[in-house]
Amino acid sequence: MDLVVIQPLKGRHCAECRRGPLAMHLLESGVPVCLDCADLGHLVYLPRGDAALSRRAREASALWAVVVRRNRRQGRYERQGLLVEEHALARAESACLADAEVRLRRRERDAVRRAAADLRFAAELAARIRQLFPGCPEERAAEIAAHASARGSGRVGRTAAGRCLEEGAVTAAVRASVRHLDTDYDALLMAGVPRKEARARLAGEIDAVLASWRRCPDEAGAAHDAGEPWRAGPEEPVPGPLGGASGTAAPGRSGQDP
After folding, report:
1. Which of 184, 197, 226, 239 is the most buried (most CB within 10 A)?
2. Where is the composition biased (Basic and acidic residues) (predicted)?
3. What is the dihedral angle through the alpha carbons of 224, 230, 236, 240, rounded to the nearest 10 degrees?
4. Given CA atoms 232, 237, 241, 243 in this order, what sign does their dihedral have?
5. Rounded-to-integer distance, Cα 146 and Cα 118, Å
6. 0.70 exceeded by the pTM?
């Protein structure tokens, strides 16, 4: 059975030495006895709050006691801490400190591992963006991937679909980037335009950017060239009506009739 030491709510005096008021006391035969008279005066107080430290100190201490205080509102005694031997507390603190160092090193290793994993995923996401939107500039794809995949951000890159690089999730990340960086969306929000209305206004503009990014740069250039009328260069002869250059005779024909 555990020894129980009480933190009194009002002043108590030791029934044996008459010393008081007491910060802590035992009850022996219903009367308060100070720690020195109860042969517990050499113990040190360890407040509650660190379960590992309390457990280790209790296990290393040959003599220990539970410290309680009455909660008037709840009508019961509540645990406040322990009284343990000083050498046991020192040993427990050393063990917990060693554990803290181990945990710190583990956290540092985990942080390095997570950072490397985040970089790999951002690179994979950027490659997926370039696959779906080959016209998107490489640097822009990297920026979108880094923003969407930031750990703890809750953005689309951290969702299950985003982690699987699903097309819908990747497209949503690209669309969000275009909305904020390539349109007046933020300005509309600052002007008080409701979010849904602002998105509806800019949907066509965003779709146009996405459509241009879905084409390869070579295809976009070819389409642009196909739409331009042909013009002769400054050094290029313009074809004449006889198949030769304008102002020159056709091959095999002289300037005069025979």
Report:
1. 184
2. 219-228
3. 170
4. negative
5. 9
6. no
